[in-house]
Write a structure and sequence with these properties.
Beta Polymerase, domain 2, 5 helices, NT_sf, 41% helix, single chain, alpha+beta, PolA_pol_NTPase, nucleotide-binding, 5-stranded mixed sheet, 171 residues
């Protein structure tokens, strides 16, 4: 989701609580916590971090191919299909960089208005994921308070949420 930069120089629609950076005390405390996590082996190994990045890249490619298929199925012309786009955004512990080894990646899939939740997300995208050999443990939960597709890609757990915007094209 794009951030709006206003005339005051900050991003978003509201003012930040503070523009000051961390104090020396907070920097020292952060270093202590990072050392503790490393010593306790609660931080992620480099090969795990690389795998997560590869999985997110694969998911991004899959979602982009899916939205083009959804656009074509919706009856739009080839020019519109060419411009069709969907975006994924991470959030939660992964986005904050505080996840541990084996933690899932909370991901939001932002799609244009024609890619409806039940027909396109929980049916078409689900079917595409189900056919991928690297995807396992695919569990759609369409009736949850926050509807989600849960699955693993190459052993990495993903919770994929859906957001439909009132735009014809997602930039």
């Amino acid at each position: 989701m794009s951030k709006v930069k206003n005339n005051s120089g900050y991003h978003g629609v509201t003012e930040p609580i503070s523009l000051s950076g961390p104090t020396e005390k907070y920097l020292m405390q952060t270093a202590e916590v990072e050392k503790y996590l490393s010593d306790a082996r609660l931080d992620e190994r480099q090969d795990e971090a690389i795998l997560r990045e590869e999985v997110l890249g694969k998911l991004d490619q899959t979602v982009k191919a899916w939205i083009k298929k959804a656009t074509r199925i919706s009856g739009y012309g080839e020019q519109f299909v060419h411009e069709a786009n969907a975006k994924i955004f991470t959030f939660g512990s992964y986005r904050l960089g505080v996840h541990g080894p084996g933690a899932d990646i909370d991901t939001l899939c932002v799609v244009p208005r024609h890619a409806t939740r039940n027909e396109y997300f929980f049916r078409w995208l689900h079917d595409i994921l189900a056919e991928m050999p690297e995807v396992s443990e695919l569990h759609p939960v369409p009736d949850a308070h926050v509807p989600v597709l849960g699955f693993k890609i190459n052993g990495v757990s993903i919770d994929l949420l859906y957001a439909n915007l009132a735009h014809a094209v997602i930039p």
